[in-house]
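Deliverable D4.2, example record:
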Amino acid sequence: MALQFISLLVISFIIWLGLAGSFALAEILLGLVVSTVVAIILSKYSRFRIGLDFPVRVFRFVFSFLPIFIMEMVKANIDVAKRVLNPSLPINPSMVEVETDLKGEISKLTLANSITLTPGTLTVDIGEDRLLVHWIDKKTSEPERIREEISGKFEKRIGGIFE
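Output generated by the structure prediction step:
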């Protein structure tokens, strides 16, 4: 329980500092208070723990996952903007199932959120080994191609970070 509390406190405080954008003493103290409250509440419900490999995971997240995610998000934004500005472009909206090899809850949640944050896709449901996704322009019916189009670039990197 103590390791969960400390892990959540550290992560909450790092997020606070990143979002606050200020290192004034008042901001730091308020961040510690808020992070402590968050850690107290969440440590009862979470199994999150920082391990010795935490710096490696952060490095992978920042230098492996984020650049690909940002690039895919920009491409999807351009695609959706083209469709909005030119209504004659075809769309083929559909609900598709995307298989995933990810097992951890945080891994699947990160994948689902990454898909949802990419314009043109919206994760509707998360199952044991699949995600149900609304796709603005279904290009194929082959499960492997659907997986590659929607989650292929994210899944391997997320697995290397959270599993």
